[in-house]
Amino acid sequence: MSETKWIEKSDIVALCKKVCITEKGVTGEEFCEMSFTLITVFDLVLGNAAGIVKGDMLGNTKTLQDNLKKSGKATPQEMISDEITNGDLNKLIKDAKTSTCALLWLSRALWFIYGLLEHLCNNPTASVKDCAQAGYDQSLRPHHNFVVRNSVSLCLKAAPERSKLIDLLGPDEPTVLNHFKDLLPHLKAIFGNNQTFLKEFKVMPKDEKPI
């Protein structure tokens, strides 16, 4: 009996498609479930070094999940709107317990994963390390200090050979890349919606990339 690989085991494509984009934002429970699952791809990309990269991502997702349960709101955007209405934006952005801070940094981290997968699909000869570095450069790197940048760079050196990663993800490269090509437009829509909201509420600079 063949081993179940990450794409099938995680059911990430289906989880992503469960996230709905509404007038009030992205459906929070489904977004958090998808985020928790998507972040686990770093276990395959970085192995034992994954913890350093994953820690803040998982923490920010848990903060959003906990705050959704406490607030009774359906979307992160509703929670953030309330926080900004009743608080100081500059303090909210720096407070790790707030949904404002959590979504800001989780959004940047999820773009990191998006960039990694996009480069993996668009550059068939690129190494996993180079794909991960490209994803990091376009997302989190501009917001990290020198020490953190160096730490992440060291972690990325743990990335496996491309063929090894593909073997962990699915049965073969064409199948894996087809799944990711199906996944990426949905991720882009969700992440783009979050980023647009954060920019409109001045949580994120308007010129921040990738959108």
Chain-wise SSE layout:
Elements (H helix, E strand, L loop, with lengths): L5 H5 L1 H7 L2 E2 L2 E2 L1 H12 L1 H6 L3 H22 L4 H11 L2 H6 L4 H24 L5 H10 L8 H11 L5 H8 L3 H28 L11
Antiparallel strand pairs: 1-2
What's the total helix number? 12
Report the biggest beta sheet as strand number plus sense, adding barrel if it closes. 2 strands, antiparallel
User: Average pLDDT, to the nearest integer?
Assistant: 95
Task: Compute the number of strand runs.
Answer: 2
Percentage beta strand: under 5%
Give a quick rundown of the structure.
α3 runs antiparallel to α5 and α8 (99-122) runs antiparallel to α12. The protein has helices at 6-10, 12-18, 28-39, 41-46, 50-71, 76-86, 89-94, 99-122, 128-137, 146-156, 162-169, 173-200, and strands at residues 21-22, 25-26.
Question: Any overview of this molecule?
Answer:
A two-stranded antiparallel sheet has the order 1-2. It has twelve helices and two strands; from the N terminus they run ααββαααααααααα. α2 (12-18) packs antiparallel against α3. The protein has 211 residues and is mainly α. It has helices at residues 6-10, 12-18, 28-39, 41-46, 50-71, 76-86, 89-94, 99-122, 128-137, 146-156, 162-169, 173-200; strands spanning 21-22, 25-26.
